[in-house]
Every structure is written in C-alpha cells, then in structure tokens.
Automatic annotation (TrEMBL), chain A:
Transmembrane domains' residue ranges: none
InterPro entries: AB_hydrolase_fold, Acyl-CoA_thioEstase_long-chain, BAAT_C, Thio_Ohase/aa_AcTrfase, Thio_Ohase/BAAT_N
Stated name of the protein: Acyl-coenzyme A thioesterase 4-like
The organism of origin for this protein: Xiphophorus maculatus (Southern platyfish)
MF annotations from Gene Ontology: fatty acyl-CoA hydrolase activity
Active-site feature positions: 242, 333, 368
Domain called Acyl-CoA thioester hydrolase/bile acid-CoA amino acid N-acetyltransferase: residue spans: 20-151
The BAAT/Acyl-CoA thioester hydrolase C-terminal domain, residue ranges: 214-423
Family: Belongs to the C/M/P thioester hydrolase family.
GO biological process terms, semicolon-separated: acyl-CoA metabolic process; fatty acid metabolic process
Automatic annotation (TrEMBL), chain B:
Family: Belongs to the C/M/P thioester hydrolase family.
PANTHER family linked to this entry: ACYL-COA THIOESTERASE 17-RELATED, ACYL-COENZYME A THIOESTERASE-RELATED
Membrane-spanning intervals of the chain: 217-237, 249-268
Domain Acyl-CoA thioester hydrolase/bile acid-CoA amino acid N-acetyltransferase: 24-152
Entry keyword set: Membrane, Transmembrane, Transmembrane helix
GO BP annotations, alphabetical order: acyl-CoA metabolic process; fatty acid metabolic process
Pfam families for the chain: BAAT_C, Bile_Hydr_Trans
Record carries keyword Membrane: yes
SUPFAM superfamilies: alpha/beta-Hydrolases (SSF53474)
Species of the source: Xiphophorus maculatus (Southern platyfish)
Limits of the BAAT/Acyl-CoA thioester hydrolase C-terminal domain: 270-403
Official protein name in the record: Acyl-CoA thioesterase 15
Molecular function terms from GO: fatty acyl-CoA hydrolase activity
Length: 436, 410
C-alpha cells in the first residue's frame, strides 16, 4: 500500500452549495511542506471539458486551506477561495470561443476537485491524484419551483421561492442572443424573489409571425406577475443585461402600466431611438455598416452607440425616472459602451435632480458579461446575434481576475439593492411595534 | 408580550445555510426583516418515509435590528430551550396524535431528508396558523460522488458505499443490532467521510435464529470488503459467497473495532416491563455477564477497541459490559488497546449526530415475530449531545487508526 497516498484527505465544504456560495477546500495529512496541485474539472452540458489548477505548498502539519493559502501558480495565483471555479478554462485543444452557461437548472453543475503531488501544469489525466471529491453547485435552492409560462402569449419561466409567499417579483431580461435563459432567475428565486426569465427575441410570437415584440409584451409579463397569487403586486423589479437594459430603461420611464420598485441594468445603455422600440433598434443595428475587428479577428461592437448623442430623441430621458436604479458597468466592455452611457445618465439625473435614485457601480477591467459570481469569465466567444443574424467571434472584454472580482462584488451589491427596495417597509402601511 | 402583525408588505427573510448539508453537518437558521423585539416561533417539519410527521419548535424573540439567529439566540421553550443551533433537528418528535414507538430511520439514502423550516408569529400554538415564511432544507446521508452498490448474493446481502476519488480507502464493516434487516444510512455517512463501508444485512428481520452467523461467515464478509478495497476489478461483484469462502486466506490486516453497546447473543428470560409496558432488557445482559461461557474472550483482542456506552441504556447493560471487558483486557495486558466513552443520561440508540432521540421503539421480537415496544432510555438533550460528541470521537478514532497510523501494515 502506498502509505503516502492513503493518508491525504481532501474536503470541500459545503459539498452541495448554491452557485453564489463560497466553499472551503481543505487538504490534510499530506507530508509537511510538500508541493501540491489542486485541480478542478468540469464537463459542461455541451460536452466540453473545462479545468483549473493551482500550485500550493502544504504547511508544517501537511495541510492546505485554499481560502487562506497562497497559490503560487496555475490558472490563478494568490489567495483565492473560489479561484478553482472562476478560473476554469476549456482544456487545451478545445474548440475556440466556448462559453459556459447552464441550461438545465434543475440539475447541479458537478465539479471534480482533486489534489496531485507536485506542481503540475498538464497531463492531469495521466496521473493518479492523491485524493478527489465531487462538488455540486446549484442554481436552484431546495423547494424552489420552476414553472414554464405560456399564458398571455408569453415565452417565459417563473421561479417561485420555497415557502407560502407571497414574494416580491422580478422580471429578468437577457440580451441580443435571445433564447430563454433561466439560471439567473432561478438563483434569485433561491434568494426569496419570485423571478421570471423572459424570452423576448426568439419567443413563440416572434418565431411564428416573424415580428419583433412591442412594449405590450413586457407589460403583459409585468401584469402576469402582478396578478399572480404568490407575488406581491406592488413590489416588482426588473433586471437586465445588455439589450435587456434598453428595454428596462424605456419601460421604467415611459410605461403607464409598469410601476417598478427598482431596476438593475447591467452592461447596457439608454441610447435608443425614442420614436420606436425593439424593432427600430434591430433595424438600426442591421444597418450599421462595417464592423471593427481586433488584430486577431474578434469583432468589437462598442463603437456602435458612440458618441453618446445629446439629442433627447435618441436616448431615454432618465431624468424622468421615478424608481431607484442600479447601473453595473465594466470599463473594459468591448461590446457596448455602458460606462460612457452611465456617465451620461448620471449627468442627466443630476441636472433633473433625481440622482439620489442612482447607484452606479463601474468596474475597471471588467468586460460586458457581468454574470453571477464564480462562473468563468468569458472574454471572447462564438455568438449569434439574433438581431443581425450574424455569427461572429465577439470580443466581450475584461481581464479575468478583475472581472471575476467585479462579478462577486456586483452580485452582492445587487442582492442588497433588491432586498432594500423590495423588502423594506418604507412604502407600506404602519407597522405596529411592541415591547417586551 | 403582544404579537406584532407581520404584514405581507414587509415579508421576513428566512435563510438556512447550507441549504443542502450532510446529516452530521450543522446549519445556520437566520430570520431578518422582522419587527424588533417581537415573539416568533420557528418550527421544523419532516414527513418520514413511513408517512409520519415529525416536528420540533423553538420560541424566539427578535432583536432590535429585527433579527433572529438560531445559532446565537436563546430559545425560550418548545421542544428545546437554550442556545441550540441544531435544536430544530435533534429535538424532532412525532407530532401529537402520531402512532407510538416510532423511530426515525432513513431507508432510501440516495435521496435527502426534506425538512421544512417555518416561522410563525407569537409564542402561542401555531398549528392553526399559516407561517409567515418557510423554506425547505435537504439533509443527506450520501455526499456527492459516493457510489452505492447493492450486494444481493444469497448469504452476502447489503450495500457497499465507495467514496469518489482514486483511493485506496480504508474499509469498514458496519453491523446493526437485534432488529435485523438492512440499514444503510450510517455506512453512507461513513463513506461520505472517506471510507469504503459495507452495510451488512447479516440476518433478515425476524430471521435471526435461522441465519448462519458463524465466525466464518463474518470472516468471508471482511474478505469481501478487503478485496474491494484493493482491487479495481468490478468483476468482484460477480463473485458469489462461495467464491469468497473458498478464497479465504488469512491476512494480517490492520483492524480496529468500534462497538456501540456491544451485544452478545443468547438467553432472554430476564426481560421486565416498565410502567408503560415497554420492555426493559438490561437485566438480560447483567445475567449473561455472570456466565463465562456466554462471553467472547476479549483477552484475545489485538486491535484498538472503542466502546461507546450510554449510562441510561435500558436495553443493554452497556456500562457493566464495558467494565467487564475492561477488567478482562487489563488482566491480559491489553488495557492500552481499549478506549471507552460513557455518556451520562444517554440511552441505547447512539446514532449519528442530530438524529432524533428514540427513548422507546417498536421492534419485531426475533424469537416470536411479535411486535413489542422496547425501552432504550436516555434523556433527549444529554442523549443528543452524546450523539454529537461520540460521532466526532468515532471519526477521529477511525482516522487515527485507519488513515494516519504509522503502524498500518499489509
């Protein structure tokens, strides 16, 4: 029996966690001061392999604690409790332009974490590790219910939190890639918010008629939530990324039907033709002219809306906004120009006197795809834009370390913002207090 | 204290972390966004595989920031009181009106126990009220990646649990008591802690008398387990009991034994009943201890032995048995191998942590196939503390002897 191999133990706590929960990876009983590599492997739903690894030296008791110890090399370095997740990359030889996105949120993401002897950078499949464990990462907490929604012409999925309710509600919009993307709404429901992910570009209506939806599609979604028995009709928020931001800003300012408690806009802009809506935006993008490319042929679309116009017929007048707004932007966004847009919005709100409603989070070196934390940063990927029907290798931007930190910080602040605006008793009737 | 109306427009926020845990892991139950300094009741509810409802509850008062933290705050009463982070689990008991003699034991270890934690206004009876907020938490015996293999060859019946990873792992043969049948949950949990564990059904419920339980039978089971530890061949699963028996060879393997309430078989005419007509069996053991021919010669034990005993064990005289074993082993110069843990006010069924305490339970008598209620003893709080402490000590004993020991030899 290899005595050394028999001794080493590896644990990850919790072994089943939500995707935005931290874990603690502990190696014990290795030889003191031994060189070790901790390795993570994940096979995504599309069948591609992703991996991450880091080099450690065990302490005098033969232990490594990833939350406290320094990685001296690998796919991340320094003290990074969650580095083995956010630094996951496709294994060498993989197809370029991959992006990790969970489709089936009812099953967990399974990651194998192993510890190897020595400081390895390759050949993990050919070596037998000292120990290995499996870790589950869930988008859905126990008791969260997933309900497909097709009423009122909607293509959506509602996630209800565990418990009797009623719960505050949220409409979740993604960007120009279309599809029905559920994972963020599932995660928000795990935090107590009844969240509905909406497909508004490749929805049943559009696929059948060839037409892009109008404002009333989103108002229908809002009304669906408002009258739902498990939703607090007076506490509904909207969250969007990229093109989703454009929709939210327009609706928040101009819809007579939507009375939002608050809105969160990630990586988006207020620049859009005010005499139209999505269809006009689509037409505008289609008629852009030639794209800009980087030296290695990745398309950069950030210039499309620049410079920010001064003409109020070309952008949403956020000076008229009446609900709290959180803007989350990456300063290295190569796909849109959210930072410049945010600066312009801030100016508009200052001049209108409603800037007390604005929370602006601007992250240096973060890119376009600011997602829930600990998921791998995608700087470049294969992308089919529904609006322009083009498939391209798109540069989203961001430097992995800072982008990952931004995701973690933004998510935490987003949850606090939502909680404050959806849960606080400020707007409600009187609250009677009693003393002991 | 008057109850505060907690209106729907200011929903409280309940969190249980981790929401999915192993059964021996603690969780944190936190409620926020409550009216300050107001009374609330937290309740846990579990619907068992047998169809019974189990509940526990604690009465709390929110602090000035509108918060209740089960890990930090005092329960003013309920099924537990005081500062008890896991009180909502270990004090679970059948709801009023349930059948008697119930014991909570998970049969299907591939699914979690689902426990609903709910918050109610006030300290009065909550049964007719709706909860303000609730959430479901999962408690698992099997960690992710654990492999479960059913063993169904004639004499060799049970379930083998193998941890994920390259191994090799130390192995454990897990034996339950006089109730018979196949109970997998402790083995699943031990596998989640890094051991290949075989839950052995060494006799079916009610068939103790007619089953082969010779020494050789157990040797074959241990051989089966050992071969699984070192062989990567899945073909072993096709071996029959006879294959193992004929390949029996004496290996000087390193063994240690953990005995929870050591049981020696045989004579049963010393059973008495208590005021509830529950059977007390401890005198059976006391009688047996007087008969040298009825005792295993523990002087011959050559491996470390851990004895875990409840001082209020009404089913087996665990403490007296441990005294007897200790005396014999000391006389033979083997006293250094023995560790014993005697827990005050603790009964017979010392289970993994946070398992509800069972002071008396239904059992089928193996001699007559009759259903009786046996008294097991113990008071809930000390018994629960004993389960928590003994599990940690058992795991550390196993780790010390099976994982780290420099004396490990082939």
């Amino acid at each position: 029996m290899d005595e050394k191999r028999c001794c080493v133990t590896l644990s990850v706590q919790p072994s089943r966690g939500l995707v935005d929960e931290k874990f603690v990876i502990l190696v014990q009983n290795s030889f003191p001061s031994s060189l070790l590599t901790i390795y993570a492997h994940h096979q995504c739903e599309d069948g591609y392999s992703w991996h991450a690894f880091a080099h450690y030296t065990s302490d005098a008791t033969g232990a490594v604690n990833v939350s406290e110890d320094c990685s001296t090399g690998g796919t991340y370095s320094g003290v990074e409790a969650m580095g083995l997740l956010w630094s996951l990359k496709p294994v060498p030889g993989s197809k370029p332009g991959l992006r990790m996105r969970k489709k089936n949120v009812q099953a967990p993401m399974v990651v194998t974490i192993s510890v190897y002897s020595g400081h390895l950078t390759e050949g993990f499949e050919d070596q037998v590790p000292l120990a290995g464990v499996e870790v589950e990462r869930w988008y859905m907490a126990p008791g969260v219910r997933r309900i497909p929604v097709t009423e009122d012409g909607l293509t959506a999925t509602l996630f209800l939190p565990s418990g009797p309710g009623p719960f505050p509600g949220l409409l979740d919009l993604w960007g120009g890639g279309g599809q029905l993307v559920e994972y963020r709404a599932a995660l928000l429901a795990s935090h107590g918010i009844a969240s509905m992910a909406i497909d508004y570009l490749t929805c049943k209506y559009t696929m059948e008629t060839g037409k892009i939806v109008e404002q009333d599609y989103f108002e229908m979604a809002y009304k669906f939530l408002q009258k739902h028995p498990k939703v607090l009709g007076s506490r509904i928020a909207m969250l969007g990324l990229s093109l989703g931001t454009s929709v939210i800003l327009k609706m928040a300012v101009h819809s007579q039907i939507m009375k939002l408690s608050c809105a969160v806009c990630v990586s988006g802009s207020h620049v859009q033709p005010m005499d139209g809506f999505l269809k006009e935006m689509v037409d505008r993008y289609k008629n852009w002219g030639s794209d800009r490319f980087t030296k290695d042929n990745k398309v950069v679309w950030r210039d499309l809306l620049l410079p920010i116009p001064t003409d109020l017929s070309l952008k949403v007048d956020v000076g008229k906004l009446q609900c709290p707004l959180m803007l989350i932007v990456g300063e290295d966004d190569q796909n849109w120009c959210p930072h410049e847009s945010a600066m312009d919005m801030k100016g508009m709100m200052e001049r209108a006197g409603n800037n007390h409603l604005l929370t602006l989070l601007s992250y240096p070196n973060a890119g376009h795809l600011i997602e829930p934390p600990y998921m791998p940063h995608t700087r470049v990927s294969n992308y089919r834009d529904v609006l322009s029907q083009q498939k391209r290798m798109v540069l989203w931007g961001g430097q992995t370390l800072e982008h990952s930190r931004a995701q973690e910080d933004a998510w935490r602040k987003l949850l606090v913002f939502l909680r404050k605006n959806l849960y606080s008793g400020v707007k409600s009737g009187s609250l009677s207090l009693s003393n002991l | 204290v008057t109850a505060t109306g907690c209106t729907a427009s200011t929903p409280p926020i309940l969190s249980v972390r981790p929401s999915r845990a192993l059964v021996d892991e603690a969780f944190e139950v936190l409620v926020e966004n409550l009216p300050p300094v107001s009374p609330f009741t937290l309740r846990s509810l579990l619907h068992s595989e047998d169809g019974d409802d189990w509940e526990a509850y604690g009465r709390y008062v929110s602090d000035h920031s509108g918060r209740v933290s089960v890990s930090e705050d005092l329960s003013f009463g309920g099924t537990y009181s005081g500062m008890e982070p896991m009180g909502l689990i270990w004090s679970l008991r059948p709801v009023p009106g349930s059948r008697t003699g119930l014991r909570l034991r998970k049969k299907d270890v591939t699914t979690p126990m689902l426990i609903t934690i709910s918050l109610y206004n006030g300290h009065e009876d909550f049964r007719d009220n709706s909860p303000l907020v609730s959430m479901v938490t999962e408690r698992w015996y099997m960690g992710p990646g654990i492999q479960r293999i059913e063993i169904t060859d004639g004499e060799l019946r049970g379930a083998l649990f193998i941890p994920p990873g390259p191994g090799p792992f130390p192995g454990i043969l897990d034996l339950w008591g006089g109730g018979g049948g196949l109970l997998e949950y402790r083995s699943a949990l031990l596998a989640s802690r890094g051991y290949v564990c075989l839950a052995l059904e060494y006799f079916k419920t009610g068939q103790m008398k007619s089953t082969d339980m010779s020494f050789e039978y157990f040797e074959v089971c241990v051989t089966f387990l050992l071969l699984h530890l070192f062989s990567e061949s899945v073909n072993l699963l096709k071996w029959t009991f006879h294959d193992f028996k004929s390949s029996l060879f004496y290996i000087k393997f390193f063994l240690c034994g953990v005995c929870d309430a050591l049981v020696l078989f045989l004579v049963f005419n010393k059973i008495r009943v208590d005021e509830n007509n529950h059977q007390i069996w401890r005198d059976v053991g006391l009688a047996l201890l007087q008969e040298p021919s009825m005792k295993v010669d523990v002087a011959k034990i050559n491996c470390p032995l851990l004895l875990v005993n409840g001082c209020d064990d009404q089913n087996w005289c665990a403490v007296e048995t441990a005294d007897d074993i200790s005396k014999t082993m000391n006389a033979a110069g083997k006293g250094h191998l023995l560790t014993r843990l005697d827990y005050p006010e603790t009964g017979h069924l010392i289970e993994p942590p946070f398992s509800p305490h069972c002071p008396a339970g239904n059992i089928i008598m193996y001699s007559s196939n009759q259903k009786v209620i046996q008294r097991y003893g113990g008071k809930t709080k000390p018994h629960s503390d004993a389960q928590d402490d003994s599990w940690r000590k058992i795991l550390s004993f196993l780790r010390h002897h099976l994982y780290c020991s420099q004396k490990a030899k082939m």
